[in-house]
Amino acid sequence: MQLVFDARQHALPQRRELWQTALCSAYIALDAELPGTNDYQGSLSKDDFGPVSITDIRLSQHVIRRRRQHLAQLDKDCYYLQILQKGHAQLVQGRHELPSNQAVAAMFYSGEPYDLQCLADIRALYLEIPRESLRNRMARQDFPIAGNVGIGSGVGKLAAQLCVNLAAESRAITHADKARLGAELLNIVALVLDRDPGPDTDGDPHRLARLSLIQSWIEQHLSNPELSLEAIARHHNISVRLLHHLFRQEGESPAEWIWSRRLQKCHDLIRSPQEMHRSITDIAYSLGFSSSSHFSNAFKARFGMRPSEARRR
To answer: Of 80, 199, 251, 258, which one's alpha carbon is 20 to 30 angstroms from that of 167?
Structure first.
């Protein structure tokens, strides 16, 4: 593992700012709320294993927050699997409140806000997994944005132990072998998630499967200006009332989810080098927006900047 940051190597007044920079560099944009002292202890090491990355991190007690304004800087579409080796933590994402310890891991998504509270000094491994790479390996497609994963026994324990061993022996493993081992690790994690009922213990699997099917269909029709709740319900042979009920379990209305996905897709297209020939207005209109000013205001409310600023960045 390559050392990214060690607080002990820096003077006390610099530690807080440098630690925040190190976290954003190793992971994604976020805020770290540290204890009210500069005498902060923490270290972070990282290595890549083919499609996945593993970080070995030691943290003093504090809170890590990812907010809407950070999503505009999203350069990774991935899941994180937190494997604690010492201490306890609590993660909140969407309607999910996830404890984690040595027997239960927490899995969460980079594309939605979250709060990660380290309840004491901890040591943890974080497995960074590209979302598409994981979904392509899974039989089930109803995994929510966050969930708990059992790692105290069975295949879950095997996956966690493999992460520990890879981190410990990374310097002795060749680059080619790391790529192959990372691919195998990803296969094992997909197997764990296919078998483990933990990701949404309070959910109805049939409801989740139906909701996932509806969301997938909506994604394919986001550019249709005639897309409506009535059309969605009619296509899936359900009532609009049931459609609202399915989405309410996820903490938002169908309309909110649709506009959120349209905004995110506009954001991705605006920042894509392949779409630079298209005007921002053209992109917005192609995703169902009919007013440039409404789109610009909605975009800024979600991402903290105007569409033109996002393109320049």
So the answer is: 199
